[in-house]
Amino acid sequence: MQNQLKEFIPESALGQVSKLLEHDNLTVKVKKERKTRHGDYRVLPNEKHEITINVSLNKYRFLITLIHEIAHFEAYNRYGRFIKPHGKEWKYTFQHLILPFLRPEVFPAKILPLLARHFKNPKASSDTDIELALALKQFDPPNGKVYIFEVPSGETFRLYNGKVFKKGKKRVKRYECLEVATGRVYLFNPNVEVDLMRD
Q1: Residue 194 phi, psi dihedral angles, 5° rounding
Q2: Residues 134, 140, 142, 143: is their CA dihedral positive or negative?
Q3: What is the pLDDT of residue 36?
Q4: Which of 108, 109, 122, 148 is deepest in the core (most CB within 10 A)?
Q5: What is the spatial distance between Cα 127 and Cα 61, in angstroms, rounded to a whole number?
């Protein structure tokens, strides 16, 4: 397992991660990018457990996602199958598992305070923590996309699925955006990456 993951996570995290994965009935697979999720955990019909992680994640986001999914596995084993996917049992388990990694040997010092704050009450996705998501994004290779918050009001942009939207006003935290083809209004988080459509 160590050899399989060493190119995807910080080197100083390898030993600890290997210990967490010492289970005969747990496998980790690295998958091509899925736009709607960073990773996944599931119980297979044969009662084995499988974690999948997107290959496209930078090593810090990969590690956070991997621990997130291991927390699902550990919570399932400890509390049973009927707990809420991101309920208090999972949160407690995630906090407990991530703590040994929150150090400057693993994560850049500038994002440690953001991680510490996030893990006081971890959410189903770290992307909902806008500040943390933007801080982690700086370690991604450039992709030519812009964030919703950078799109000028009234300008159009394209999502990964090809749908075209026009940016509207900001509500409390999210932006109203009009889908050009249907006229329906959707709310977008500020850190969604899009292609700005230029004339």
Answers
A1: -140, 170
A2: negative
A3: 80
A4: 122
A5: 10
- For the chain, give every domain's residue range: 2-137, 146-196
Considering the segment(s) 2-137 as one domain, its CATH architecture is 2-Layer Sandwich (3.30)
User: In CATH, what number does 146-196 get?
Assistant: 2.30.30.30
Q: Spell out the alpha helix ranges (H) of 21-108.
A: 59-79, 88-98
- d(Cα 54, Cα 34) in Å, to the nearest integer? 7
- CA distances for 81 relative to 50, 89, 118, 159, angstroms: 15, 11, 26, 35
Asked whether 36 and 59 are in contact (CB, 8 A), the reply is no
Statement: the pTM of the whole predicted model exceeds 0.70: yes
* Tokens at 55, concatenated: 């290959």
Instruction: Specify whether the backbone of 36 is left (phi greater than 0), alpha (psi in -120 to 50) or beta.
Output: alpha
User: Which tokens hold the place of 80?
Assistant: 């049973």
Q: Which residues on adjacent β-strands are paired with residue 177?
A: 167, 186
